[in-house]
């Protein structure tokens, strides 16, 4: 949007009765919402006491938590349930019915993330330009319809098209939720709230196997796995209406507050973020700022590499467990403790980040080491060591805790609304590129290991490598260890930048937080979270 666009007018009415005239006097304020943040509308029109105590702020925070977090958590849990259903449907005839032989099953997972990559930016653009709650509701409704359309697939080509479209539609939710958390919470609060909705990827795995096992035993005109998709699609469509009517969009527009004072506190307390609340104008200069930001590309590389481990978690976990000698029911039941453990890790890591400041990069390292240990167990243990193998499956997704912390760290360390929106969507491109099958480990060349992209080289978890999938788990060990190293590099870069700004003589400050919509690199008062 060009800088010449006219600023919006905000009208504030102050009723005062004259002795001779019973008319109201009106005060008109002009707020520049092109350069400034929309939070200025609230600050400029508020005429009450501008200070508040901790109890008042806590009350406002609890109001936000009660209305926002349940919607974020349920939506993200439903998203994971929908996209990961293929791994459980595979045990009930999906692979046979749709001729998913050879690498076709692996590619049906990979093509979902190709759709994710294509859809991420359009979705986040719409979320910046239009009311975010309406965009989210529309997306959820459409992917529910897409889920039901899975039942119409009769071959692998049809499933590929459906999976691509499902990924395209689901792509906007995660980056939008990052933006929503950044709009409502202070830096020190964001990590825990990110973990609150992200941990649902684990906890939903406790419930999903039971639901799908029951649905998989329906005898009717359709194959058992088709009923799974019908039920999930209907639930998703119904949930989209809940999002439309009840999701708080941002502190400026939401109706959850009982008074203007609560709204003022909700907006004014976010000054400490130095990153604004909302600005609907796309700014090209902030795109260049992001593209030349070393810190962002380190985070992008971390997201790409850590998600290499997610293939055996979301797509192959039940199949890997069945390879240990368990039947269909026990394979699904054994996914449940894995879901509980990983959900807890994904919640515990952000909670520690919330309680102990400047621990985030170290938490990424700790969680990645959990994934390294799990991959080593699954790679090296004999198939007879079922206890150790199951333990490896249960903790393999420890990287989820690292990713929850990484999302919070990225949103806390990015200012400028266009830059923050774009970084959220591009971060999820790294997330998608890293989702297996994305690498090839060429074991025939003993001295070299060739790592190539998802759609260029052969697939990582190949049928001929079952049940051990040794090449895949070797790649997980390598990429998880590199991710841990990059977390330390990221910390050093942020420490260096903070010290440079301290030495320049500009202390951290928040008095201009909503002015000029500055990026973190342009605002000398901004300090990076470690």
From TrEMBL:
Topology versus the membrane: Multi-pass membrane protein
InterPro entries attached to this UniProt entry: MFS (IPR011701), MFS_dom (IPR020846), MFS_trans_sf (IPR036259)
GO molecular function, one term: transmembrane transporter activity
PROSITE patterns cross-referenced by the UniProt entry: MFS
Compositional bias annotation for Basic and acidic residues: 1-15
Signal peptide residues on this chain, from the entry's feature table: none
Keywords for the protein's UniProt record, in alphabetical order: Membrane, Transmembrane, Transmembrane helix, Transport
Membrane-spanning segments: 110-127, 139-158, 164-184, 196-215, 227-247, 296-321, 333-354, 361-381, 387-406, 468-493
Domain Major facilitator superfamily (MFS) profile: 68-499
Cellular component per GO, a single term: membrane
Claim: Amino-acid biosynthesis is one of the keywords in the record: no
Protein name: Major facilitator superfamily (MFS) profile domain-containing protein
Native source organism of the sequence: Exophiala bonariae
């Amino acid at each position: 949007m060009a800088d010449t666009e006219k600023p919006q007018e905000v009208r504030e009415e102050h009723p005062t009765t004259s002795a001779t005239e019973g008319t109201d006097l009106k005060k008109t304020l002009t707020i520049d919402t092109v350069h400034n943040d929309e939070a200025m509308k609230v600050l400029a029109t508020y005429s009450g006491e501008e200070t508040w105590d901790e109890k008042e702020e806590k009350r406002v925070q609890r109001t936000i938590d009660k209305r926002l977090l349940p919607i974020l958590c349920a939506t993200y849990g439903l998203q994971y349930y929908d996209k990961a259903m293929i791994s459980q449907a595979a045990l009930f005839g999906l692979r046979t019915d749709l001729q998913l032989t050879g690498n076709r099953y692996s590619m049906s997972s990979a093509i979902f993330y190709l759709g994710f990559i294509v859809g991420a930016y359009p979705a986040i653009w719409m979320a910046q330009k239009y009311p975010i709650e309406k965009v989210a509701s529309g997306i959820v409704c459409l992917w529910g319809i897409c889920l039901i359309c899975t039942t119409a697939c009769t071959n692998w080509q049809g499933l590929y098209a459906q999976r691509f479209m499902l990924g395209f539609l689901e792509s906007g939710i995660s980056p939008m939720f990052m933006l929503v958390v950044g709009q409502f919470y202070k830096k020190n609060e964001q990590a825990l709230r990110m973990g609150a909705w992200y941990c649902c990827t684990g906890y939903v795995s406790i419930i999903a196997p039971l639901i799908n096992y029951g649905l998989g035993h329906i005898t009717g005109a359709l194959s058992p796995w088709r009923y799974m998709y019908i039920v999930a699609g209907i639930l998703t469509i119904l949930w989209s209406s809940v999002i439309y009517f009840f999701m708080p969009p941002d502190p400026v527009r939401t109706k959850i507050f009982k008074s203007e004072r609560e709204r003022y506190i909700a907006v004014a307390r976010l000054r400490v973020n130095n990153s604004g609340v909302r600005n609907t104008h796309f700014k090209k200069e902030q795109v260049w700022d992001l593209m030349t930001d070393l810190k962002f590309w380190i985070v992008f590389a971390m997201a790409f590499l850590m998600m290499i481990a997610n293939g055996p978690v979301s797509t192959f976990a039940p199949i890997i467990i069945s390879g240990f000698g368990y039947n269909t029911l026990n394979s699904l039941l054994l996914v449940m403790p894995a879901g509980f453990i990983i959900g807890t890790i994904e919640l515990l890591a952000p909670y520690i980040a919330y309680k102990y400041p400047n621990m985030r990069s170290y938490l990424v390292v700790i969680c990645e080491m959990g994934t390294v240990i799990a991959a080593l167990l699954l790679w090296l243990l004999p198939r007879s060591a079922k206890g150790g193998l199951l333990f490896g499956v249960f903790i393999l997704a420890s990287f989820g805790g690292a990713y929850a912390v990484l999302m919070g760290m990225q949103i806390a360390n990015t200012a400028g609304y266009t830059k923050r929106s774009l970084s959220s969507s591009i971060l999820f491109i790294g997330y998608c590129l890293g989702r297996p099958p994305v690498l090839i480990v060429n074991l025939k060349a003993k001295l070299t290991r060739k790592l190539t992209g998802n759609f260029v080289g052969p697939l990582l978890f190949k049928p001929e490598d079952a049940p051990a999938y040794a090449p895949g788990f070797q790649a997980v060990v390598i990429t998880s260890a590199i991710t841990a190293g990059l977390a330390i590099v990221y910390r050093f870069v942020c420490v260096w930048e903070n010290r440079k700004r301290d030495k320049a003589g500009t202390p951290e400050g928040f008095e201009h937080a909503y002015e000029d919509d500055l990026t973190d690199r342009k605002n000398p008062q901004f300090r990076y979270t470690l």
